Amino acid sequence: MAPKLYVMPASPPCRAVMMLAKEIELEVEIEEVDRNQLKTPEMLELNPEHTVPILVDDDFVLWESHAIMPYLVGKYSDKESLYPKDDLQKTAIINQRMHFESGVLFQRSTTAIAPLFQGIGDISDDDRDKIIEAFGYIENYLEKTPYVAGEEMTVADLSILSTVASIELVIPVEEDRFPNLSSWLKSGKELTYFEECNSKGLAELKDLIDAASA
Questions:
Q1: How many CA atoms lie within 13 A of 127 on its CB side?
Q2: Contact at 8 Å (CB) between 8 and 33?
Q3: Which residues is 30 bridged to in the sheet?
Q4: In 10 A of CB 151, how many CB atoms?
Q5: Which of 60, 85, 204, 211 is buried most, with the most CB atoms less than 10 Å from its CB?
Q6: How far apart are CA 186 and CA 174, in angstroms?
Q7: Active-site residue numbers?
Q8: What is the dihedral of CA 123, 125, 127, 131, to 10 degrees?
Q9: What is the pTM of this model?
């Protein structure tokens, strides 16, 4: 039985896991849910924190994209470059980038666009500056290597890619200011599965932003 993945397409972490599944050629059953469904007894039994993505693999349940992605690579793929098992330093760098994505980039992005969803205003100058600063951090990651954690694509690239592709709906990546990030982002969007995994979610996210801003 294929692993099952509960997602909300507008969620960058969900799209990151969906891209990883395509990258490792893993068949997964995708079930889309909404926020209300996440609070039903059935879903709370799977994940009492009522967040997505949620992975169900036989009798094993796991949530949080940064936990799910290494698990899937370890169990279902021989592409160890995505998340090396036996190189502590490479894995540590990947983990650092993933923590950056969740604790800095994603958090700053959700804070920045919150006023749009709440209908109380535009992105503040301070929040915009914090996103630009985060772009600068990624630019620095890409100064010496083509990918954010080294010479090869890792789970960190897919995780950061989904979030950058989302926040650039409202805060574009300036090519002149961030040439490395711009080139990396362009390459990410050229992945064969990028559109399949992201187009619906990005369209939904844009509709939500536009509706809230109207």
A1: 18
A2: yes
A3: 5
A4: 11
A5: 204
A6: 12
A7: 11
A8: 100
A9: 0.96
Output Rg (C-alpha) for the chain, integer angstroms: 17
Helix (H, G, I), strand (E, B) or coil at 214: coil
In the chain, how many H helices and how many E strands?
9, 4
Residue pLDDT tens, the chain, 214 long: 899 999 999 999 999 999 999 999 999 999 999 999 999 999 999 999 999 999 999 999 999 999 999 999 999 999 999 999 899 999 999 999 999 999 999 999 999 999 888 777 889 999 999 999 999 999 999 999 999 999 999 999 999 999 999 999 999 999 999 999 999 999 999 999 999 999 999 999 999 888 877 6
Question: Residue 3 has which token pair?
Answer: 């692993």
Residues in the chain, overall count: 214
In 37-170, alpha helices (H): 41-46, 65-76, 88-100, 107-118, 125-141, 155-167
CA distances 138 to 41, 108, 143, 146, 207, Å, are 40, 14, 9, 11, 27
Residue 53: cis peptide before it, omega within 30 degrees of 0: yes
Closest CA to 61 of 53, 24, 180: 53
